[in-house]
## 1
Amino acid sequence: MTDGSQALMFGSNSYLGLSDDPRLKEAAIAAVQKYGTSCSGSRFLNGTLDIHEELERKLAKFVGMDKAVTFSTGFQVNLGVVSALGFRGGYILLDDTDHACIIDGSRLSWSTVYKFKHNDMNALEKKLKACEADKPKLIVVDGVYSMLGDLCPLPQICDLAEQYNAAVMIDDAHGLGVFGENGSGTASHFGLTDRVDLIMGTFSKSFGSLGGFIAGSEKVINFLKHNSRSLIFSASMTPAAVAAASKALDLMIEEPQRREHLWDITRYAWKRFRDNGFDINATESPIIPLMVRDTIKALTIVRMAYDQGVFITPVISPAVPEKDVLIRFALMATHTKEHIDIAVEKLTAIFKETGVIQ
């Protein structure tokens, strides 16, 4: 903690618990010793190393796409991809709870942007019907929504995309490492990889590093390499970040027990919270929203929990509407059922004291 104290960490996105793994540290150190601390340039100039290209090959194979390209951050991926594919006269269709970087990318595009109500397929179809049939259309959704922990209804999205001749892009920042074969994400989880056009991921969650990537067909990835401004005009991923992400990818495949344990404790935590009277909405993931629906109470709860050695994070406006204010309780594969028991008991007492649950 910043003040030197210790606490149980339930505020991290390191779902597989790899950000502190000694093997990632060793890989990062070795990369720094070989390549230095920075490429000091963009991918188009001097910022492409053999390890960048190796990671991209591994990522494309991992998510079942032809090609992949890495960016310095996940935010830059969505900013650059969505803006580059937002063609003049075209349409971008967004779930209204998509991540901010998707929204910002759409604002930089030339396309008309339509938002539809979260996971509402009737609303999506209405927006698709409003689009001109012969113009390009791109549907962009989160695979796993980072605040409520629910999944996109990908089978229905793909059906509508095919019916209305639209492309589908998934932001799988919170799905990779958690869902699908070997943790390869939401499309794999639903068995729909061949019906998705683009898969985006970040390295700051399950990969325990920093950066991001987009994967798709060779033609589209080549287009993005030459048109995505946040890629072209940014310095490339540092050697340490590349090496750490690459090692994490290896461990995802080699150690499925990490993901299996994560799901074991996730199901355990769902039950513990529900049995104790918490409203955890419709989560389907290790992201567990503890609904508070009051900003002051949420901030009070976070402070009280911190003082009792439990680190959790509040989610307040503008991240969510006031009526949906929540505490975000996130699990890692390094947690145990004992850790969860301690946190649930302390949070139950705090939520009762603040009047959120009876």
## 2
Amino acid sequence: MPAPLLYETHMHTPLCRHADGLPGEYAARAAQRGLKGIIVTCHSPMPNGFSAPVRMRPEQFDEYLALIAAAEREWRGRVEVLPGLESDYFPGMERWLEQLHARAPFHYILGSVHPHIREYLDQYFRGNWPEFHRQYYRDLAAAAETGLFDSLAHPDIVKNQGAEYWDVPALLPDIRRALDRIAKTGVAMELNTSGLLKTIKEMNPAPAIIREIQQRGIPMTVGADAHEPSRVADHYEEALTLLQECGFASVSVFLHRQRREIPIADALASLRR
């Protein structure tokens, strides 16, 4: 059997209030799937009650780190359990995130624009879904330009808001402008397999967008966005094959905030079904 190579790079804990299972349970599933490790990336705490129903409270941050440390001790020598974070980009929150990220030796910081949360809808939705979709891509590029993040999570998740108005061909000029800006930053982008469970049942982003990403030399990570242990590495085989079909030869992973490349052929061979 080939040596383990891949990590689950997007997974949550019960502290976010909409996930089940402790990190050790996710590590057990990672072992079954032939992964080298997991990087825990629960939703970052935010100040002043921002998006509070779907994330840990600021005073739970140390508890979060303790959960990861306990699983790391439990699985040491078998599955790597590493600390990460999924942090929301929202204008005006940059300083908060900069200070938060400095509080622990994180391996990986995912940057997310979450267009479904109340604060984002209140700020940007004015009854025009196509314009809302365009705004999302402006913010995604702005997130990359902050330098706060290693990769951008589920980078077309906005298609599930006003899904009946989602039109990739019409939006491509805006997507391309955003990707041009992102390419200049060196920030990666994520292929998120949980899109298969959403309103528009395809991975995030769609193949047409993946091809645009590849043409600009932007690296890609893969994550299942697991909110329960059974979804660790979910649909990784399909995701890696899709990346190959779109012109990628390798997939990225971040350790100690440094990007490493894994050949997709080797990654596929390492997985256990």
## 3
Amino acid sequence: MKEREYLIELYMLYGNLLTDKQKTIFKKYFYEDLSLSEISENINISKSCIGKTIQIIENKLYNYEKKVKMHKKTRDICKLVDNRKLNEKIKKIISG
């Protein structure tokens, strides 16, 4: 999985744990694909501060996943649901 897509998926899971300013910067950088300079101009924060903030956000998201493992659990559940053999077993159990 591409790193950018992975970070966006982590943001969807853990984004509410970030500050409002961090959410704004994340959205501008990852969703709107703005450069550090563009974000800096839009919210009146230095370019270096934007870069540091993005790194902090990424580290937070990785750490949340490392501790909670919600992304991994979600992927594992999806794999189980997609598994046709499991689906057949579930159908047999349900139908008695």
